[in-house]
Amino acid sequence: MGGDGGSIPRRVELVKSKKKPEHADRRVANAALWRHCSLSHEPLRPPIVSCRLGRLYNKEAVINKLLNRSKLNNTADHVKKLKDVRELHLTVNAAYGETSDPLKDACGEFYCPVTGLEMCGVHAFIFLWSCGCVFAKKALEVVHDNRCMQCGTPFTTSDVILLNPQTEEEIAMAQKRLEEYVAANGKAKKRSAPVNSDSSAAPAKQKPAEQKSKEDGKPDTESPQPGTSTAQPPTKSTKSIQEDPTASSVYKSLFTSSEEAKRQPKAHWVTYNPLYFR
């Protein structure tokens, strides 16, 4: 029923099905990951660094990001300082040339010094966070040792970082290890925070008093509050004049504390009053 003399259109020609997502060529993807900086997308050139997610960066690009965070993308937002990346010790491949085409050959600029495998995306590579040395993942599976096979630095399983994780499982594992590392560093900072706060609180309390004394031009002294006396209370060492061995008996009789004054029938001249006997 096509209207042209008996041609019949089929369902395939009339109904359009959903197109399958296009996948980039593996060699193109490998060339972008293993030969270019994940931050600036420029060709990798020494010094090359990597983060705990296994991404490759030019050290110059990381420094530029830390100095001016507004110009570059948010690929490495987890990199807050240079200590969050590690400089890689890569072994240069002598067979690699500047004219090598990554889309035609699988030759890598660097290779594993243990297995001889080239770092071009075909084989999985790792690096050790403790020293920065790079090896093929197969080298760790063959050589079971807790020391670096190139420099002899001891390492643990947490120091082994996979470069450019590909599968969803590998990416999730790298993200989880990064979160654990950030959480561990946060707890360490909280433990050291009380010590610093106590030490800084003492000088802060002294500053107002020092500032007040500088403004007045006088030393900071406490003024007595109203209603309080500044006179010191009498000490217990005060003795009566009657007990003084140096005073004469005539001098002692002038005081009311003498025995003669106590035996008088009427008041003495100080307390004399016409109304005394009333």
Automatic annotation (TrEMBL):
UniProt-listed GO biological process terms: DNA replication termination
Signal peptide: none
Biased composition annotated in UniProt, kind: Basic and acidic residues: 10-23, 207-221
Listed InterPro entries: Rtf2, Rtf2_RING-finger
Polar residues bias (residue ranges): 222-248
Origin superkingdom: Eukaryota
Gene Ontology cellular-component terms listed: nucleus
Region Disordered: start-end pairs: 1-23, 187-248
Pfam families: Rtf2
Family listed: Belongs to the rtf2 family.
Stated name of the protein: Replication termination factor 2
Species in which this protein is naturally found: Opisthorchis viverrini (Southeast Asian liver fluke)
